Amino acid sequence: ARYLSENDEDRKAFINQPFGSYYDREAVTQFLFGLLNKKDAALAEMAKVILEQSRFAAMHRQQKCEDCPPSHAILELVGELTEVPDLLMGEVIPLWPPQIKITEDCSSNCVMGLLRMLPLLRDKTFALSLDFRHQSLQNNPSIVSALNECTCIRSLELRHCEDLKACFTAMGLKYSYTIQDVKVIGCEMKKDDDELHLPPELNGLELSGCDSTVTQCLLNEISWMPSISTLNIESCHLNDDIKQIICHIVEEFPLVHFVLTPDLYSDNRMNDFLGFLTHLHHLQLKKMGEYDEENCISILQRNQLETLHLIKCDFSLTLHSAMLNHLDSLQ
Fold it and tell me: What residues contact 246, with CB distance under 8 A and at least 6 apart?
């Protein structure tokens, strides 16, 4: 690597030679990044050249069958380092993917690469998804704590976290003014916990597969947030208290997008909510029954909808006629 960094022609030949597969070149580069811990300027220059030529962008790679997604290539390389040399920063940051999704199948280098870069990403915002079934996230709370002072995450998704309040506290979400959207999937919280603090200027909240405790705590939190414009509740259990909170939110705040899909054990009647939704521009309803038609027709008559998605809903002649009469501009 040191020789190639000092010889232009041989370096170009190395970069452009037909490897057996793209991953041969990636393996060489990953080995090279490991050597960079010796703080050798010549090796750093060689790594910079390879990054410039290979770009390590998702569009240049094929999806691995049983491994991390292509966009994680730069994470895996940075994960080899104890610190990122200044010489490489100008090449690494432009390659940073707009969305990072850490799943239970990711390598440990993906997580380490993320931690290395978080303090260095100031103007490069991205969306982050963390699956707490990943062993590194389960056994190392400091990884979650590293997000506390991060200002580059605009959207956060948390999957299968067993102690949601501890996670929120460790991340300092209560004090994060950069996170605009939060998605919580299949997460739990301890029975004694009764509140969760979300980012103060949150625009969107999505809940999926959550029990009534998590759902009620998070909806209580946003019930005083006028910044909320998007609310998605899918496959969550809705008790009477939760329904009252939802009614309050959709009545008090000018939601632009609202999706509601109760789980199999909830009362599927939408009649409790539809009367508050006449101001919406985008609406998706699932499993709407005949008892909900009157309020649905009222929404159609207001004719403010731009998009309407009806999934597995009952259609009567009255509802069909209302749709024909009031859906001129609807998609």
Answer: 219, 231, 233, 238, 260, 272, 273
Give residue 27's identity as a one-letter amino acid code. A
Across the chain, how many H-helices and E-strands are there?
15, 9
Q: What is the pLDDT of residues 164-174, one digit of tens each?
A: 998 998 888 88
- Mean of the pLDDT values across residues 246-255? 84
Residues 6 or more apart whose Cβ sits within 8 Å of residue 56: 26, 73, 74, 77, 95
Which two three-digit tokens encode residue 296? Answer: 């649905």
pTM of the model: 0.74
| Percentage of residues in the chain having pLDDT higher than 90 | 18
Report residue 56: phi and psi, to 5°.
50, 35
Q: Long-range contacts: 67-71, Cβ < 8 Å, 24+? A: 67/105, 67/107, 68/105, 68/106, 68/107, 68/110, 69/101, 71/97, 71/99, 71/100
The Cα–Cα gap between 109 and 176 comes to 26
